[in-house]
Specification:
The chain has ten helices and two strands, in the order ααααααααααββ. With about 270 residues, the chain is mainly α. It has a two-stranded antiparallel ribbon. The longest helix is centred in the N-terminal third of the chain and has 45 residues. It is globular. The relative contact order is 0.13.
C-alpha cells in the first residue's frame, strides 16, 4: 500500500513537473509573440507604406502641366484661355495672396474651437510645415529651370504656379485631417484653392498649365508629408524614447513677427 502511495506521489510530481514546463514554455512563447507584435507595430509606424493610388491625381495634373510646355495643342489651350480672360477684362484683385493659406488656417481655427482633426497641434504642425517645405523644394527650382514667361511678361518664373501649389497643399491638408470624421468639412478647403488658381489666371500671372501643374505639386507635397511624418517624428523625438514624455518632448509652432512668417522648434530633454 505504501509502495503504491509513494508511486502515485512520484507520478503526480512528474506530471506536475512536465505540465509546469509546458505552461512556462507556453507563457514564454506567448510573451515572445506579444513582443513580436510590438516590434512589428513599431516597424509599421516607422516605415508606413505609401498609398500609390493617392498619387494618381497629382501625377495627372503635373503631367498635363509639363505637357503644356511643349505640346502644341495644350499650348494653344493656354493661349486661348488667356485671350478669353482678356476679352472679359476681369477686375484684378489680390485676394489670391491670402486665400492660398485659408484652408490651413481654418484647420487651426477649428481646433481652437474644439473641432478636433486627425492629429494634435504638434503632429499637425510638423505635417503642415513639411508639406510647405516639400512644395517649395518642387516649385522654386522648376521656376528657375523652366523659365516660362508669365502672361503679363513681368518675368520668366511662371511655371509652375507657387500660389496654386500652396493653396492645394493647404486644401489637401484640411482634407486629410477631417476626412475620417467629417467628410463634407474636409472638402471645404478646395473652393479656396480653386479660387486661388483661377485668380492667378485672371490676374494675368499664370497660364492654365502653370496652375494645373501647381495643383498637382501641392497635393503631392501634402501626401508625401503625411507619409514622411512617422520618420520625421522619430527623428525629432530621438531613438531612445522615454515613457515619461515630460522629460523629453518636442514642440513645433508657427510664428508671425515683424511681417515674417516662420516655424519655431522647441525641444526639452
Amino acid at each position: 500500500m505504501k509502495k503504491n502511495f509513494r508511486k502515485t506521489i512520484i507520478n503526480l510530481f512528474i506530471v506536475n513537473l512536465i505540465f509546469g514546463k509546458i505552461s512556462a514554455q507556453d507563457t514564454k512563447d506567448s510573451a515572445m509573440v506579444q513582443e513580436s507584435k510590438k516590434d512589428t507595430s513599431i516597424v509599421n509606424i516607422q516605415n508606413p507604406k505609401l498609398n500609390y493610388k493617392s498619387l494618381i491625381i497629382p501625377a495627372a495634373f503635373i503631367g498635363y502641366g509639363v505637357a503644356g510646355l511643349t505640346v502644341r495643342g495644350l499650348r494653344e489651350i493656354n493661349l486661348d484661355t488667356k485671350i478669353e480672360i482678356d476679352e472679359h477684362k476681369p477686375t484684378r484683385i489680390k485676394f489670391d495672396d491670402y486665400t492660398q493659406y485659408a484652408p490651413g488656417l481654418i484647420v487651426y481655427g477649428l481646433n481652437l474651437a474644439g473641432v478636433k482633426g486627425k492629429h494634435n497641434l504638434r503632429d499637425r504642425t510638423i505635417i503642415y510645415a513639411s508639406s510647405q517645405l516639400i512644395a517649395a523644394a518642387f516649385i522654386l527650382p522648376l521656376k528657375y529651370m523652366v523659365k516660362e514667361e508669365r502672361p503679363d511678361r513681368s518675368n520668366t518664373m511662371s511655371f509652375p504656379s507657387g500660389h496654386a501649389a500652396t493653396a492645394f497643399s493647404n486644401a489637401q491638408f484640411m482634407f486629410r485631417e477631417y476626412k475620417d470624421t467629417n467628410f463634407l468639412l474636409s472638402l471645404s478647403g478646395y473652393p479656396f484653392a480653386i479660387f486661388t488658381g483661377v485668380y492667378r489666371m485672371l490676374n494675368d500671372k499664370h497660364w492654365l498649365g502653370d496652375v494645373v501643374a501647381g495643383t498637382g505639386f501641392g497635393i503631392l507635397s501634402t501626401e508625401l508629408a503625411y507619409w514622411l511624418y512617422p520618420r520625421i517624428d522619430h527623428l525629432l523625438r530621438g531613438k531612445n524614447k522615454t515613457k515619461n514624455t515630460a522629460l523629453s518632448s518636442t514642440m513645433v509652432m508657427p510664428f508671425y513677427q515683424n511681417n515674417a512668417v516662420g516655424i519655431g522648434l522647441i525641444k526639452t530633454f
